Amino acid sequence: MLKNTEIAKLSRRYAVQTVVAVAVLSLAVLSLQMFAHVDGLVPPLVVSALFALVVELADIFIWKRIAVANQNMLPTFFSAVSGFRMLLALFTLVGCYIAVGRDAMLEYCLVFMAFYLWMIFHHSAFFSHVTNSHIECDKDNK
């Protein structure tokens, strides 16, 4: 069982990693616009960065509440997060399509895909590490 202090520490680490990664990805997209002279990346960057921040911070907030209340629900949570993230991404891209039209969607899809793939990787790597280290600690304590 994870203790409340461990849960708080892990949630802070996840939030900090999220903010730093979104900043780094944003700088990468802005540098691509500046140095490769690719126009029209700022609106897709804003949508993608806001999406990543909102979804990732909501993810860790809900994880923290579930981990404190009932850790037996965590496997269900991990499965549900993936589905909700994908549905939110689809709704976001459909909204972008409606707002900007077909001609501007390539930039939105490419920038959004970079952020979305990072989110999947970050979620998987972070929580598999937490789960694996928790399992190893339980084995050591027995």
Task: Describe what you observe in this structure.
By secondary structure, the chain is mainly α. The protein is 87% helix and 0% strand. It has 4 helices and no strands.
How would you describe this structure in keywords?
142 residues; mainly alpha; 4 helices; 0% strand; elongated
Summarize the structure.
By secondary structure, the protein is mainly α. It contains four helices and no strands.
Order of helical and strand elements: HHHH
Overall form: elongated
Please estimate the helix content. over 70%
Largest sheet: none
Strand content: under 5%
Unreliable spans are none
The count of strands amounts to: 0
Helix/strand structural class: mainly alpha
Q: Rg from C-alpha positions?
A: 18 Å
Query: What is the count of helical runs?
Result: 4
**How far apart are the termini?**
13 Å
Sequence-ordered SSE layout with sheet pairings:
Blueprint: H1 4-35, H2 42-69, H3 74-100, H4 105-141
